[in-house]
Amino acid sequence: MMSLSISVDVPNLADGVRFYLKAFGFSIIAEPVAGVAVLRAGTSKICLLEKDAGSSPSICTQEKRHY
Predict the structure, then answer these.
(1) H or E element in which residue 18 lies
(2) 10-65: per-residue pLDDT in tens?
(3) Who contacts 29 (Cβ-Cβ below 8 Å, separation ≥6)?
(4) Would you state the torsion angle of the CA atoms of residues 27, 45, 24, 37, taken in this order, to the nearest 10 degrees?
């Protein structure tokens, strides 16, 4: 069976969780640390990571997060 697992940056974790629960039927399976939630729907998992708008996604870029 194939499974899918991805990470998604969100500006507000609570809002992100609410969106994925309602829009796609995910359920929360873990909140391992503050600012992180792992959700599952069937064999698919997503890890929501709370990241501020304007923060840098990598030390290797000048780009900033914008939502």
Answers:
(1) helix 13-24
(2) 999 999 999 999 999 999 999 999 999 999 999 899 999 999 999 999 999 999 99
(3) 38, 39, 40, 45
(4) 50
The answer to whether 51 and 12 have CB atoms below 8 angstroms apart is no
For the chain, the helix, strand and coil percentages under 3-state DSSP, each to the nearest 5: 20, 35, 45
Task: Look up residue 15 and give its two tokens.
Answer: 């809002």
Judge contact between 44 and 1, C-beta under 8 A.
no
Look at residue 41 and give its three-state secondary structure.
strand
Closest CA to 8 of 67, 52, 48, 41: 48
CA distance 67 to 11: 7
